[in-house]
Write a structure and sequence with these properties.
Keywords: Membrane, Transmembrane, Transmembrane helix. There is one protein chain. The chain has about 200 residues and is mainly α. Helix content is about 75%, strand content about 0%. Helix 2 runs antiparallel to helix 7, helix 3 packs parallel to helix 7 and helix 6 packs antiparallel against helix 7. It has one domain. The termini are far apart.
């Protein structure tokens, strides 16, 4: 049985400069970091160097080690499976580089979600997109969609880890179709549950 832990993407209150930074600026830094690290990292050493920035950020934000681990471990089974497949299809250095870069991106995303309250993020996005309202763009709904998407990405990683754990427990072999089908079904169920919860609260009326 899995240990109970805080859901991925929770906000960890704090008074550090990272907590106080503008959510829009943090989002731009996150996107730039993921893009540049993916493009520039060609070896495992490069990938390890890319991990330094999110590691420093997490230390600066004073994220409790236990909370950090609880946020990072759910995607690890999926990363190991992807790494093994990449090793089989290519070579070990390429697989290691891919796994480490993805882990660095996840760590950066965790830093962003742990230090950014969702309402403040949505408010910032809505304010930035406000000029588009004159062309009939539903800015409020769009900002909510972006905010919820950012929060749901870690949840999808958790679901993927659960699916892999279930297949391992049954002794099932690796199959992209056998893995992807239950993952897709569970993601759709979660999306429907979220939509029903939002509808019950009158969102979108």
């Amino acid at each position: 049985m899995r240990l109970q832990h805080p859901p991925l993407g929770v906000y960890s209150p704090g008074s550090t400069a990272i907590h106080r930074a503008n959510p829009g600026l943090k989002l731009l830094v996150l996107i730039a970091f993921i893009a540049l690290s993916t493009i520039l990292a060609r070896t495992p050493l490069h990938a390890l160097l890319a991990c330094v920035l999110p590691a420093l950020g997490l230390a600066w934000a004073r994220i409790p080690p236990r909370l950090l681990w609880e946020q990072l471990w759910p995607p690890i089974p999926l990363l190991l499976a992807l790494g093994a497949f990449r090793w089989w299809s290519s070579d070990l250095p390429t697989a290691a580089t891919m796994v480490i870069i993805i882990l660095a991106a996840i760590a950066a995303a965790v830093l962003f979600t742990l230090t950014t309250p969702l309402p403040r993020l949505m408010e910032t996005i809505e304010r930035g997109l406000a000029p588009l309202e004159r062309w009939g763009v539903p800015v409020e709904r769009l900002s909510m969609a972006v905010g919820l998407t950012l929060r749901l990405i870690p949840s999808v990683m958790t679901i993927a880890g659960d699916v892999l754990d279930a297949r391992t427990a049954r002794g099932a072999g690796w199959s992209l179709r056998a893995f992807g089908t239950p993952l897709l079904i569970r993601c759709i169920k979660k999306a429907r549950a979220l939509a029903q919860a939002l509808q019950a609260r009158g969102v979108g009326d």
